[in-house]
């Protein structure tokens, strides 16, 4: 039986499931709408779809290093209660293992990665159905190195923050780990000042210049004062210019010396950049029982 676009659209409107999930279910059910709906429910996709508009910003970040490859992952849940559950943590670890093993290039490929006899998408859908909360793979990054380089990995607060550092031209894994720990605590936005976007620098210059003019500083002095203020700004947001948390007499650049380079920094902080959903609890309960 030929499955039409209107059939897919109808099943989607009935279940809230994604277009491709509806198409696969209809193919499996040979066009039977009711049977296709049952297939989606059995797979947990319907329940997962109902949670799709929820904000999942709790959860965990994880790192795994294996030889010359590493991955940093963020898996989200809606509540901290679920994120502390051992089953959730194990599920997140299984996704981390699978992503490192298969090294997908993007999120679309990641959803199809095999986790045992399921895919990553199946695992997320089934766990959402089991728990009753939206569970999502928010992001991941895979990093590769050579034998001449070293990784430093550090997780903080039970996975609230995870940092991976790649040192080029150094086999000093302990140094890399120290820098990863520093980055977790100090939250640098960039590795070096040449990575800071020009528009951000211009905005800072504009703000500082206006402040100095309001303070009555002479025009001739503003340029020198501005340089000092920008240097301080860089020391706050650039890893290499930050004072090392274990020895504030040294910067991270001092620790590295001349030949060692921080080639890569990946820092995932749980829920960063996400807007927390404010929920009326009574309305939420009422919506769930309807």
Structural summary, described in words:
This protein is of the alpha+beta class. Among the domains are: 5-50, Ubiquitin-associated (UBA) domain (Helicase, Ruva Protein, domain 3, Orthogonal Bundle), CATH 1.10.8; 58-167 and 270-281, Elongation factor Ts, dimerisation domain (Tetrahydropterin Synthase, Chain A, 2-Layer Sandwich), CATH 3.30.479.20. The protein has helices at residues 5-15, 19-28, 33-42, 45-50, 80-83, 86-102, 107-111, 120-131, 173-186, 198-214, 219-237, 252-256, 281-289; strands spanning 58-66, 69-77, 114-115, 118-119, 136-144, 150-156, 161-168, 243-244, 247-251, 261-269. The strands form four sheets. The chain has a three-stranded antiparallel β-sheet with strand order 1-2-5. A three-stranded antiparallel β-sheet has the order 6-7-10. Strand 8 (243-244) and strand 9 form a beta hairpin. Helix 1 (5-15) crosses helix 3, helix 2 (19-28) crosses helix 3 and helix 10 packs across helix 11. The chain is elongated and about 80 Å long. It starts with a helix and ends with a helix.
